[in-house]
Amino acid sequence: MQWLFMRQKWRDALKRVVIATSRIERTGWRDSALSQRHRKFGSNAPAVDLDFVLVEFDDCRPAALVEYKHECASPQYITSPQFQVLINLANAAHLPAFAVRYAADFSWWLCVPLNDEARKHLPERKRMSEKEYVSLLYRVRGREAPQSVLDGLNQDAI
Questions:
Q1: Do 124 and 74 belong to one domain?
Q2: CB count in 10 Å sphere of residue 32
Q3: Total number of domains constituting the chain
């Protein structure tokens, strides 16, 4: 019982910290206290929060970095520090980097290549069906998407 009380007390304290931050954490599931604390490390120790980066991999080897954004997410700009850090990380690892905005129903995927490695697989931004997008993910792995996988996916981009 005391554990539940302490847990509620911790939640209340965390809410006060969240309210005091300069950029309030919107989702509440990340550690906003760490974000606030990191700001105290000074301007020569910057950090960027990558919202939903996935490392696409094959046989335990990274194949691509993908920053996913839901269709309702705020607009993002390739010139932002968030994307510049991702691009530099991908370039250092010789990996393709993509920014992908997706529909809530997964009917379309807007894929933007962020670096030269990505442009080898996708020369320019493209709105795709789910099948097209999954085929791209297989291509960056040097593989062909199995028909059995593609058969279960959305075919037409809206």
A1: yes
A2: 21
A3: 2
